[in-house]
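Notes taken during the Thursday session

The instructor put the following on the board and asked us to keep it in front of us for the whole hour. The protein is POP1 protein. We were told not to look anything up and to reason only from what is written here. First, the residues (291 in total):
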Amino acid sequence: SKKQAEKAVHQKKEQSKTKCRKARRRHINLVAEFNHRQRKNIWLETHIWHAKRFHMVKKWGYCLGNSPTEKSYRACYRAMTKQCLLQDLSYYCCLELKGKENELLKQLARICSIDTGLTFQEASCLSGRFEGSLNLYRADRYPEDMLGPVTFIWKPRDGSENRQLWIWVHPALKQDILRELKAIFQCSEPEEICISEPVTTSFQEEKQVEVVTSLGNKRKKEDKEGEKAVPVKKIIGDGTRDPFQSYSWISWTTGIAISDRSMEILRYRLIGPLSHSVLTETLKAASVQTV
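Then, after some discussion, the predicted C-alpha cells were revealed:
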C-alpha cells in the first residue's frame, strides 16, 4: 500500500543517517566494532598501522602483517643498516614461572641439556643481565622428543630465594610446552580463573551503541557523557588461549606458580645501529620508591 511504501522510504532515510562517516568514525563505536571483529583472530596493538600497509594473514589465532603492499624493501634495508627498524613480536607467547630458584632450576634441568649449549642455569642469564635461548625437550627424554626453541629472561635477583622467569615461545608450540611445564612442576590447581566474556564492553559503550542505532535521535547529551568515560579495549585471552579457561596454576607440592602472560607482556624487536639511541630517547628511568 501507499502508506507502507512511505513508511519504508522514511525508515530507509532514517537508517542512512546512522551510517554517515562521522557516526562510523566516532571513537566509541570503533572500539566496540574492533572488539567484535577480534572474536576469532586477536589483533596486536599495532594492527591498524599494519593493516593499512601490509597484506594481513590469519595464523595461530592472530591477525598478522605478512608482506608490505608497497615496495618498501629498500627502505627497510636502509633502516636496518643505517637507522632503526622495529618489529612487533607480541604474538609470541610469554609463560611466567615464580618460585624458589633451586626448585625452578632442578625441574627445568630435566627439559634441556648442556650438550645443546646454554641452559637455564647459565650464570650471565641467571643474574638477569642477558636473555638466553635454548631448545626444550620432553622431561628426561633428551635427545629425543624435542618440543622446540624458546628464549628466556630471568628477573634480576632482589635478595630473596624466590625468582621470576619469563619463557617466550612461538604460539604453535605454546600448548605443548605449557603442558610439559605444568607436568614437571606438578601445577594442576588453577590459581586464577578468567570468568569474563572474551569481548566485553562497558555500560557506557553499550549505551553509546544503542544511541547510534536508534533512528534519527540527536546525541549531544550522550556525546558529552561519553567523552568523560573513554572506553578501553578489553580483549581477554589471546589467539592460543580459551578465555574461559584458567591462565594461572600453582603447585602446593613444589610451590611453583605458572602463569600464561600472552598478550599481557608485549614484545618489540629493534634492529639497526640507532636502536640504542631510540631506546635511550624513548625510555626514561623511573624513580624507585621504597616503602
